Amino acid sequence: MRLRPTTRGWGLAFAGVAVMLVGVFLGAVDLVRIGSLALLLVVGAAIGVGLLDPGRGRHRLSIMRSTTPNPVHAGEEALVDVVITATDQAARVRLAGLRFAEQAATELSAGRPLRARVARSAQRVTVSYTVQAARRGRWPLGPLVVTRTDPFGVARTTATLGEPAEVIVWPAVVPLPTPSDVLVGEPDRVALGARTPSTDDASLRDYREGDDLRRVHWSSSARRGALMVRSDERAGMRPVSVLLDLPARTTALEWSISLAASMALAMLDAGHPVRLVGGAAPEVPTGSAVARRSPVGFVHARTGPAVRAALLDRTVDLEAPRTSEQADAELVAAAHLLETTDAGGEIVLAVLGPLGGTARAALAHVADTAQGWAVVRAEGPNPAQQREAEHTVHALHRAGWRACVVVPGEDIVACWLRLLGSVR
């Protein structure tokens, strides 16, 4: 709590002291009394508002804050409701006459004061306002700042109520068309990705990353001590890995993450098991809910709507690499992950920048077992950077990828359609 006189209070206190000194100098008792009363008014008002501190004691006010929706996509609005409740009569006295102000990160308020609607009753005050999610990330909201002034306006107390909350902002995403006849050709449908059943439903094979657990043959798995799935599971939708090579520039970073997230959600909605790989991710405890959403594991649309959140949560904490060496190391590690998780015949959708020799070699090996599609950013407008992107595209073509050059900031749907129309 912060307690201080108002401008009026300071003026009254100085005037009281001056009148007292004049009274003492002139020997005028009445002037001394008047000055003393002025000082006592300021001191008494300060004690009064201090005793009504809403954040302390048994009669403190309770705070409940809710944000809808949370998480929210970048560029969208969220409604925040803050409910301040008095639990007893003494708390009602503390609630009466309070003024409220909410604190929010610049990424939620755009640096402007928040405009709120306040609804009051004897026991409750509800403060409602909207925030505009400007950028992907985790942004603090609160605590609530409450101010009380005495009836004479000479003393003011300011306190904070409740704990700060967090608003999670997902990247902006765009709905993308998913023409399955382009991503999965007819010859592949029998071997790798059709909805056509297998000719031998009784045969079994080892479980692979991306397989639906509902098709595990549990009795055979128990006998062999390893997960086995029916061969018709191979006739499920092909797993999709979205590979993300993060750029250093902030504008290109957010655009690249939005493109990768849009690709992942489009393939998930089409029925494919999907995972996001690439970029530095924070370490999490093994077995936790966050760990179960790690980039190593695929998520299945059939497991419920929470899988969209699982994919988007993976993007919230992504940060731009500090150096080009770090970016190359992260991309090579992601390419190695694609080779070692034994997804077998998966589709890899990549958002890349111009690549060095080590990264090109790593991605060339990925195309040995997967079908690769890549958009390559031209990192700047000058011809040299454009040539670097085109050189990377040619190298990917030679390795068996389909690839095209894109410019950060251009329409995401147009980039996607150009990629689907690319030829080797």
UniProtKB/TrEMBL annotation:
Q: Does the keyword Flavoprotein apply?
A: no
Limits of the DUF58 domain: 204-251
Record keyword Nucleotide-binding present: no
Which controlled-vocabulary keywords does the entry list?
Membrane, Transmembrane, Transmembrane helix
Q: Which residues cross the membrane?
A: 9-28, 34-52
What protein name does the entry list? Membrane protein
Lineage here is: Bacteria, Bacillati, Actinomycetota, Actinomycetes, Micrococcales
